[in-house]
Amino acid sequence: xxxxxxxxxxxxxxxPLNRPENWSVAxxxxxxxxxxxxxxxxxxxxxxxxxxNAPALVGRFTGDFTLSARVRLDARSTYDAGxxxxxxxxxxxxxxxxxxxxxxxxxxxSVVTRGVSDDCNSLPAESGDVRxxxxxxxxxxxxxxxxxxxxxxxxxxxxxxxxxxxGFLAQSPTGEGCAVRFEEIRFRAGRLExxxxxx
Length: 199
Hints:
Oligomer: single chain
Helix content: under 10%
CATH topology: Jelly Rolls
């Protein structure tokens, strides 16, 4: 794979953070990732463990925007996940995940990291039809998930220092890897109006 990835669905090139060979473009609005074994992005708030080896593709978008994707996860092990990512630097980032929980249930999970990670499980996502969305609203960001009904559930509303890049990540912290497809990727410039209305 080249140093950057051009995807017609987004207006900027995407650069790899780790493992560029683990990504492939599968159409104008689809990218595929192989997470690889023991890959993660996490800074444990209760201990010294820090992980930052998961493959990611990110780009810098200007102004208010929304970036969404349908996420198809071939989960094999606990914490396998397909992720929409905000990345400022190694200590400031946030991720919205479709992740396999310890109970074996696909789950919407969000993590906001400011030095250490604040980790929150939100919604079970067993429908098999999951879309994730990141929106920037001025200095704030919103995470939403659509579980196949067309209603965007607000998962998290927060601020993150700096001007983070935005993109995609795949992880397999406890396993031997997993495949993730990000399909129907959509980018829209402009401010999201319905933060809590499901729009």
